[in-house]
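Model it.
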Amino acid sequence: MSKRRKFIIATIVLTLGIVAIRYPFLLWRYRVALYALMAGVLSFWSLLDPDLKGIKRLTITSQPVFFAISAAMVFPLLPPIFENFLIWPISYDTGLIMAFGLRLLYLGIFAVGYYASLLCGNIFNVASIRTIQLLRAAHSVGFILTLSSALLLYLIIASFHLSSFFNIFLIFAITFPLVLSNLWAVNLTETIGKRHIILSLFIALAISQVAWAISFWPLTVTVFALFLTAVFYVLVGLTQYYLSEKLFAGIVREFIIVSIIIFLLVIINASWTG
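Modeled.
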């Protein structure tokens, strides 16, 4: 069977799985665990290749797995009905139709994103052996998908309203593998180097510390997750340029400006008056 057919089958099955995860045929944690297992098996099966060996089995397959799991966990949080459209009230039937349309749109975006993550994984696998022109595009798309996974997972953690200690632990546990797979993809080495591990640990620890600090701020769940995702973008983006030996002064200046703008937006959107 060709890889394209495998990609299509895996995408369809996991998209239907997202719909099924809403139905309480098992406890929530068992449904998530079952879906995660299914995502791991299908992702590995889709990307299975004689050249997919060693550490690549983990680093390449981790991106589609994380993307699928994060999307599946957020799907049940989508509103079952809309009562208003912007500031205007709408009828019950219209609200149901809009909510249904939102779910369809979400599933469509997931299907495209998951299929793209498999394509990126395949490109990384080939590029680790020989030069390929699509590598730069795969890096860009892969980074966007990783940011999406991080955002969705941070949203889930924030929605649980756990203590600051558990936030640090969960965010570190999620961030480290996401960062590590992205940093490895910069050079596509046969093994994960010590430098990749140290940098990934540092970034994951920094983001978890930021999460601990802003957990005391009067932020909404969405702003909390967006801020952490922005920190992820800045730290991982700078590190990727560093590993590729392209970290010039202009790039650093751009990231600093982005960081300042994001910080000011968070300050403005915080409910300091209670």
